[in-house]
């Protein structure tokens, strides 16, 4: 049999909590996501036809 090293569940001190985001951070993230989706779809920004 092979011995496997399974690490225990992360302790409570290592839980990642999202930092508080400002409205500007959220707007910037939403705009960046939209631009990425527009590029992926090759549609460009709305109204750029």
Task: Characterise this structure.
The chain is mainly alpha-helical and 49 residues long. Helix content is 37%, strand content 0%. The protein contains 1 helix and no strands. The protein has one helix spanning 23-40.
H-E order: H
Structural class: mainly alpha
The whole-number mean of residue pLDDT values reads: 77
Main sheet makeup: none
Which segments are poorly predicted (pLDDT under 50) over 5 or more consecutive residues? none
Percentage of residues in strands: under 5%
Separation, N- and C-terminal Cα atoms: 64 Å
Q: Quick one: how many beta strands?
A: 0
Q: Given the C-alpha coordinates, what overall shape results?
A: elongated
Per-chain topology:
Layout (H helix, E strand, L loop, with lengths): L22 H18 L9
What labels would you give this structure?
37% helix, 49 residues, 1 helix, elongated, mainly alpha, single chain
Concise structural overview:
This protein has one helix at residues 23-40. It is an all-alpha fold.
């Amino acid at each position: 049999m092979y011995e496997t090293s399974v690490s225990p569940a992360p302790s409570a001190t290592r839980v990642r909590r999202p930092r508080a985001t400002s409205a500007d951070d959220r707007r910037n993230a939403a705009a960046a996501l939209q631009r990425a989706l527009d590029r992926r779809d090759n549609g460009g920004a709305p109204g750029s036809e």
